[in-house]
Bifunctional uridylyltransferase/uridylyl-removing enzyme
Amino acid sequence: MPRSPARSRVQRPRPFEAIFDEAAFAADLDAIATRLRDDPAGLKMAVVQRAKQLLADGRRQAEIWLTEDGEGRACAARLSDLEDGLIRALYEHVGSALYGSDEHSTSEHMAVVATGGYGRGLLAPGSDIDLLFLLPYKQTAWGESVAESILYTLWDIGQKVGHATRSIDECIRQAKADITIRTAVLEARFVCGDRALYDDLVARFDREVVSGTASDYVAAKLAERDERHRRVGASRYLVEPNVKDGKGGLRDLHTLFWIAKYVYRVREPAGLLQQGVFSKAEYATFRRAEDFLWSVRCHLHFLTGRAEERLSFDVQREMALRLGYTEHPGQRDVERFMKHYFLIAKDVGDLTRIVCSQLEENEAKSLPVLNRFVQRLIPRRRRSLGETGDFIVDHNRISIVDDEVFERDPVNLIRLFWLADRHDLAFHPDPMRLITRQLRLVDDALRANEEANRLFRDILVSKNDPETVLRRMDEVGLLGKFVPEFGRIVALMQFSMYHHYTVDEHLIRCIGVLSTIERGTDPSLGLANELFAGIQNRELLYIALFLHDIAKGRAEDHSILGARVARRFCPRLGLTPAETDTVAWLVEHHLTMSTIAQSRDLSDRKTVETFAGVVQSLERLKMLTVLTTADIHAVGPGVWNSWKAQLLRTLYYETEPVLTGGFSEVNRSERVAAAQDLFRAALPEWTSTEIEAYIARHYPHYWLKVDLARKLSHALFVRESEAAGRLPATKFDLAGRPGVVEVTVLAVDHPRLLSVIAGACAAAGANIVDAQIYTTTDGLALDTIAISREFPDETDETRRVGRVCDAIEKALTGDVPLTAAMVRRAAPKTRQKAFDVPPEVTLNNQWSNRFTVIEVTGLDRPGLLHDLTATLSRLNLNIGSAHIVTFGEKVVDVFYVTDLTGAPITSAQRQAAIKRALISVLAPPAGDEGSARTRTM
């Protein structure tokens, strides 16, 4: 793991005394009480003002020290100590100055107890303050007055306080019935008041609640953890992680400690070392992970000024600077920071397995297994596994006979995973823990070992569950050690809104998607399912997918460098020179099909011929189609959709006859006719005359590039609009795709149509993420755009999208004149200002026989598509077709244009003028700080 950036260390007093002088604050409150004894309202206001100042000064000092020493846990402890001192002083002030008396009855006693995160003695700047006002019996007027006075003061100074007032009997009764309350009491920490009350609560809690209930508690906390992961994201490698609740975040560490504290009755994490749960190195990992995560969380709260727990793109770069990260060749400072974060998250997963292992070894009774399938242990059934005698099956999990297994034969490191895959076994935590301690055994000799490489190849191309096995190898660090090139991209995050996962997680997910394609169980994967069975060597696809992004994070183009990595690595796995060449070609061209399908005119013959010249064989075309499908699908939820599936299908079938010398398994005319037949069959209520007239309105490429569901939707929409005499007309669909709303526009086609639609969407505050644009034979445009959804509620979203549709129709009819200023003024607020994409414009006359192809690359911003298309119009260019692609914050827009006479742009001087004009458009308008623009894709 990369070490944290070096920091200057400062000598400082103990955290509490350095940040807060409790005696001085108490004296201030006494002086205020004396001065304003006859003015209750003035007294309360003065106390609030003094407490607010104290809190602000303390937090400011805590932030300064955090910046200087980088010790996140110490910062959290200082803030907790600050809160303790504040509450103690307020308790004494309230008890003596407001409700004092010389004698208290036995019921007029109270202990103020910290619970929740505050109970651990650690607070982030924006954390809630959880308090328990503990009473010996029932509530009294005195206790109620003291609690209310403290709470109102804390609320008045702007703190978020969760509170409960209970007797000891109530605490015990509710802790037995509610796991959340049980955990709160488990973490309870005395702050002030009657210490004997608190000690009684702890003693009774241990005796009456904890005793004999460890198994139930562990099961409940793990189920709670799994639900939390499901809610915030099941992968610890999401590129915008939740520091507190995400997988591998602070809450996972807290869950480990809750479980260990409950089972082993330790009060501090150091007790886990004394109990033998952690080795010294593992305990050091626990403290390092905790300190790093607290540092990130505290900085995040200080930076945003609120209890922000998500490391969003908006703050990642500033966080990297705060934490002292610098750029390295091929990696930006923010990417190095996030890689460190994900490695820490991985450590948290390792610690989970360690605690699991120790629970099973040390607890005689059944305890749950710490994995996603919370299950109870049954009496162990063991049997030997494999020919070497080094492995056993323990309760349907693979384990080892002793701790010398890997020392005796390092190939066993790989063989363990091979056997697990072959026999469909889960992993016992003992060998996984041992592997992390013995990674030094992975050396050049093991990497060159023929048997080890054969076993790894079998794992990688397995027909069982290669994704799970590879992920387990990655989690224990073995995959990155055995394949050093993979080790370089472990936990590597790309600072881009397009990529949802780290690079290693993306590659492993690709293997999972490919396995799904091979089984044919996901109909959305379309053509890839059909093609896979006809591929001659399925193993090459798995190997190519494993390698396709393995060279990311370096200064050189990752596709070219990745091909070189493939040429070195494939012979290790026993591939022939011809097989190695195929894998290297797939790696080098893994983006080609996706780029052409989404950003080129597939009805242009030159596009298909150019692509066929790159592919050169039908077998490579099939493999590249499957690889591209898996790659796009594994980018993240919602990235793969039916539009992209249809584009790949169209490109495949347009290219196939070129590669086969004119012969096609399904030629173009037959595919068009088949698509039209499906359309006819789906509309039995239409007359033959109506159907044939409608079919004649669309060009052949429409029938190939649009899926059946949209064809039917378009037909009904056109029929209804024309019957009602509505033109232009719009309609929308909330249920078509998750996270977006599809808006369909029917209007008379004209050169500025795309510009007007894009501008109207921007002016209405709609962010376009996709578009399909078609022209009918009778001069109409039928465009379907997808805009980002803003409201989860159907009613709210319906109203919003209705306003967007109204804006489009009014702009197209000229009822509301559309200006660039209006587009920018109403543009949606987005997060692209955190990114930097150098603008680039290229003009190419080789990609089409009829058009000049203009490719524009730059940073997304509001109204950019409108500005680009309006600029092309002012330059007297006709747009033949537009292909709009957005990769997160980066746009790649391609326009097929001619001059007013219908000829390509050949003049070098004219091309230079076009390029200058478009480059100027890519620069953010005055007053625009680079926030995102409305986009189509």
